[in-house]
Amino acid sequence: MSSDFLARLIGMIVFSIFGVYWGSSVGKLAVPGYGTETFNLEQYTFTFGLVGALAGLVLTPYLTTRPIRALKNLLARLTPQQLFAGLTGLVCGLLIAALASFPLSMLPGPLGEVLPFIGVLVFSYLSVSIFVMRQNDLYAMWQGVFPRANESTGETSGAGWAESRTILLDTSVIIDGRIADIARTGFLPGSLLIPRFVLNELQYIADSADSMRRQRGRRGMEVLAQIQKEPTIPVRISDIDVEGIREVDDKLITLARQLRSPILTNDYNLNRIAELQGVTILNVNELANAVKSVLLPGEILNIRVIQEGKEASQGVGYMDDGTMVVIENGQRYLNQQLNVVVTKVLQTAAGRMIFARPEDRV
Asked: Of 355, 357, 314, 311, which is closest to residue 332 (Cα–Cα)?
């Protein structure tokens, strides 16, 4: 039984009781004044009770469960820092309003009765706004006054520092699979947050009629299960959602702006759109390009030529990190291992490309 249905039943009973009492009161006033042609007392009671039951059946969710659900979703989108800053600001605002209410209540006329209530609203709003605006400064000050230290070593707990940062995961980076190895190395300080709508999209891909998409979705499920089993990787799956938005990428960007969290992805389009909206992006492909070996012209590599190049007499090989090496006059060394000398390193949008020539060439 859903909460809306239960609230409707309770509201129907409560409103019908009020309707009965109201109808009985109205009937007692109306019957003596209009004679026998008007409704009698029982008809007034039954009519108002029926109207009250109908009103309770229709209006109760809008007065109870739906505002509570909206408040719950709003609180779920708030970070711990925002929630702490807002509550602290509210307490400070109420204290200031309480101190100011006494002199304001001494004013003559209606001002002494109205201004204390207005002062509570104004001071509370201003305090909450200011504290939320300066939440990072407050958090830094709190950390400075009460540092979370390890009792044995006196050093700040690394696990607690990691938990203080949240990283949103995109569907593409889960399917890619490299996130498990990256997170295991400890280069992602923070807890990995996977919203429910990302998990639903991953499940939709895993259930696709296309065999390739289905394999990619199932691979993402396996990677996610592997990450959850790692004790050193904090992973959270949250029911947090963004109302009024259907596209998963738009939901991720909006959620990242609300939580002030980066998005971990390898989707180029999501990367560009998020950057235009001021959202921090952690791109796995950019990380992979950054950690590739740095080579200079004149260095010697040992490469196996595995295919022909686009140009005549060219050969193509690959380094251990996947970097393509184009070998001049390397076609004759097809399926052979040889030493090559780097002649040029070219950085493209797709990655790094290396041009080389055989070492024995004069």
From this structure: 314
pLDDT, one tens digit for every residue, the chain (362 residues): 566 677 777 777 887 887 788 777 776 776 665 455 456 667 777 777 788 788 877 777 777 777 777 777 777 767 777 788 888 889 999 999 899 888 888 888 778 888 888 888 999 999 888 888 877 777 667 665 665 544 444 444 444 444 557 888 898 888 888 888 888 887 777 788 888 888 889 889 988 888 888 898 898 899 888 888 888 778 888 888 777 788 888 889 888 888 888 899 888 888 888 888 888 888 888 887 777 777 888 888 888 999 888 888 899 999 877 788 999 988 888 888 999 999 988 876 566 788 999 987 54
| The amino acid at 349 | A
Instruction: Give dist(CA 342, CA 294) in Å, integer.
Output: 11
The one-letter amino acid at 39: F
Last residue of some domain: 47, 68, 89? 68
The count of structural domains within the chain is 4
**Are residues 179 and 257 located together in one domain of the fold?**
yes
End-to-end CA gap in the chain: 84
Could you give the C-alpha distances from 150 to 56, 146, 188, in angstroms and in order?
Answer: 56, 12, 22
Structural domain containing residue 99: 78-138
Residues 335, 339, 342, 345, Cα dihedral to 10°: 40
Alpha-carbon distance 358 to 361, whole Å?
6
